[in-house]
Amino acid sequence: MRKERNIRRRLPAAYFAVLAMIGVLTVGRIGITWDEPNYFTSSYSYLSWFGHVFQEPSDWWASIDRYWEQSHEAPPFFKLWAGLFAGAGALVFGTEDLRLLGDAYRLGSYALFLLAAIAAFRFARREFGEAAAWGAALTFPLIPVLFGFARLGQLDGAAAALYLLAALALLRALERGGRGRVLGAGLLLGAAFATKLTVFPLPLAALAWVLVYRRGRAALVRLAGACAAGAAFFFALWPWLWRDPVPRTLEFLFWARGLQEERLTYYLGEWWAGAPWHYPVAALLVFTPLVVAAAGVLGAVRLFRGSSSPAAGWILIHLAFLLAAAGSGLVPVYGGPRQFLPVFPLWAICAGVGAGWLASRLRVCAPALLAGYAALALPGILWTGAGSSLEYYGEGVGLIPGAHAFGFETTYLANTYRPAVEYLNREAPEGATVYVQAGTYPVMETYRRVGELREDLRPAYLAPIAVERYEWDEAPREGSYFVFLPRQSVYTNQLLALERKEPLYTYEKGGVPLVRVYSGEQVGETLGIPGRPEPRRVGPLNALFAGGATLALLLLLRQQDQDEERKEQQVPDR
């Protein structure tokens, strides 16, 4: 008996060790993505400030703007955190191989993913049982979009992991109290906000939970204390704010408003200025394997039926607030599910609850059922491939080919540039110019710096498409190339016209183009085409519906809690 208990105690550690090894072995499989080069150099700049202050303490205030200006529109926690991993990589491997340093940087995000998976396992085991805990732990890597972002030096995977870590810590603090728990939850809350603003529903959902489950003044005080600690930690982490606190904080809170018109949501074959309410709900189903989607729906139903449990209500309320915010049409939602990625760790817990309930209902061996659950999810994941995790769609929508036919966005983060780089290395003449779309110059330049793109090839922008501080030309040079990313959410009429031309090279998955290469002459023929697709606007009723559905859920949860309380107060007949 003791031996069996020891084995059960060691199994989670063994599982998460294997999961860690899988992450380490696959962290370099995804191509360089949008913003990763900027974040990497920002991390170096931010951490260099501490060294500068150590050497010249009197210059600490004046030097803030110089070291913290780069990518200051995005908060710094992940850039500092991942920079420490890159620094550790430099100590172990040296600084010659930039690819190894980039992989070490990405491991900062993967470490947060592992911590979130462990926290979900422990939470589900405590609240819903052993089978649900294992179902949740298995589901984390079976959601390719979540697992894909976990291996990127991007803010989104880190924000999703920190949302869950902060939410679970905050629930513990609200239920049990204690200054240490409240402070710890506050620090995680501050770290989440200092990673990406997409976590803003977290304190709102926590407040709604306190009101629904009538936790009283003590819980409100604890929540306020956690939020105060989080705000202080957020501000302490970001020296950029110190020099001009109010204007710069407001800039951070509102800078994304303009993206509502600049970057659209491509969904069901149409462009949307703001996502309709059903887009994030559909994402839970189409971005996950069919078996995970089914388990998630079943788990959500089971949580609702057992919502007299505050833990079940906590998961449902956070899920509802995240979906309502993303589907309100009031916030920019573009580039696939990354703007509401924190939904997916919660969805993993729902899937774990669903799988655990099914094991008990069917009265089958839970390990066998969970093994079958994972096995059913793997074929589509393996067909898509580790390098295309961000392009994955579930079997329910027909994987990538079916999703493309239904009008979902094909690809969005430039990670598919790598096959185009290999083509250019083979075919481009010496000294040729390689033009790229707006925002992706650092990606192509990084391929050259790490040695994957030939040193003699020249990445550049075209002035009519993007003029920034990088290399650019007014018109395409002779013998040049244009790397085209089929990211429908940023399409202009010029890119739509270019897409209709026959490319020099196409990299496809299941017949769906993930990157194309055109000649400079071809792109030059389309540069004079103005305008962009007219977006469809969701209107105010969309936000009212999303908010109304969330309010209805809160009222139902409140009613169920009251019914349960009345049952407990009834005195049984003797």
UniProtKB/TrEMBL annotation:
Membrane topology listed for this record = Multi-pass membrane protein
Q: Does the keyword Transmembrane apply?
A: yes
Q: Which residues form the Glycosyltransferase RgtA/B/C/D-like domain?
A: 103-241
The primary site where this protein sits is: membrane
Which residue ranges run through the membrane? Answer: 12-32, 77-95, 107-125, 131-150, 157-174, 186-212, 219-241, 277-301, 313-334, 340-359, 366-386
Protein's cellular compartments:
Cell membrane
Domain of life where this protein originates: Bacteria
Q: Which GO terms describe its molecular function?
A: pentosyltransferase activity
| One Gene Ontology CC term in the entry | plasma membrane
* GO BP: lipopolysaccharide biosynthetic process
What UniProt keywords are attached to this protein's entry?
Cell membrane, Glycosyltransferase, Membrane, Transferase, Transmembrane, Transmembrane helix
Q: What is this protein called?
A: DUF2029 domain-containing protein
Q: What is the lineage of its organism?
A: Bacteria, Bacillati, Actinomycetota, Rubrobacteria, Rubrobacterales
